[in-house]
Amino acid sequence: MEKINLDNKCILVTGAAGFIGSYLVHRLFKDVKGATIVGIDNMNDYYDVRLKEYRLKKLNVQCSMFHVQWHFVRGDLADKDLIEKLFAQYNFDVVVNLAAQAGVRYSITNPDAYIQSNIIGFYNIIEACRNHPVEHLVYASSSSVYGGNKKVPFSTDDRVDNPVSLYAATKKSNELMAHCYSKLYDIPTTGLRFFTVYGPAGRPDMAYFGFTNKLIKGETIQIFNYGNCRRDFTYVDDIVEGIVRVMQGAPERKKGEDGLPVPPYAVYNIGGGQPEKLLDFVNILQEELVRAGVLPKDFDFEAHKQLVPMQPGDVPATFADATALERDFGFTPKISLREGLRDFSEWYKSYYK
């Protein structure tokens, strides 16, 4: 592994106004000295743009408190000329590609968005990394690539050739493209398979956020697979800790017996390794919403939940084997579900009420 000191480096974060991206940029502000950080985001309306503007405003305020240069570009990864221009202007040392069209269910009805952002957009980024060599490309993959795999916990050694959503297929495609470019052009790449990321200022299309929006309106929430789905929930600060560590450890460049590069390529899971039943998760959420004062103390939760069958594109369980991340970077996610949902509930009250 090649160690990278991020101080005084030029770093690109795509999806910088997104959930994980904004947390990562803030963390880099705090931890990295003398860096130039460039963020790009197309600020699309897949969910409430005001939330993206809120995250971006916080970053613009925070950056003045730290000794970093911060530049934000409102633009789309599918705009090849723009991406080429940015790479030529800044000569990035490290690139973190978090921009993507997210969501399993949305991919069933809006496939074009996934091809544009996750395939063409990723291609433009990795092609720019070829034309303007970088020390490390880190990119977001997803636990969705495991599809309906029956073997748990999910290991990066498992075959992942049977995606059950277009979203998952695009993420697996990113991994394949990265391997190809690592082999052909000696570009160090690391993919990170995120497991159900949640936290304050998260994505409203995620279950915990959508459930909260419905419950405060007195609506009924639908809990799929009769509450028996199991998810490896990962708090956003744990995800960011993993990303920052991985950014500093690029797969080593070396030659194989054929004289060609051994692909400097790696993929890791980032997940808590403690799958929770969806019904238990929802019970903890409503307890923390009551505790934070988002819901009244006498809220009748039983009257507002409905157990329903599985949805197309969903999988019954996600469960991360994160031993490789622990082995190579000394890190395993640690923040408990109750602690994370407490933080979310308190943020929700302050943001909306």
From TrEMBL:
Pfam families xref list: Epimerase (PF01370)
Entry-linked InterPro entries: Epimerase_deHydtase (IPR001509), NAD(P)-bd_dom_sf (IPR036291)
Chain ranges of the NAD-dependent epimerase/dehydratase domain: 11-257
UniProtKB keywords: NAD
Chain ranges passing through the membrane: none
Signal peptide bounds: none
PANTHER family: EPIMERASE-RELATED
Protein name: NAD-dependent epimerase
Source organism of the structure: Xylanibacter ruminicola (Prevotella ruminicola)
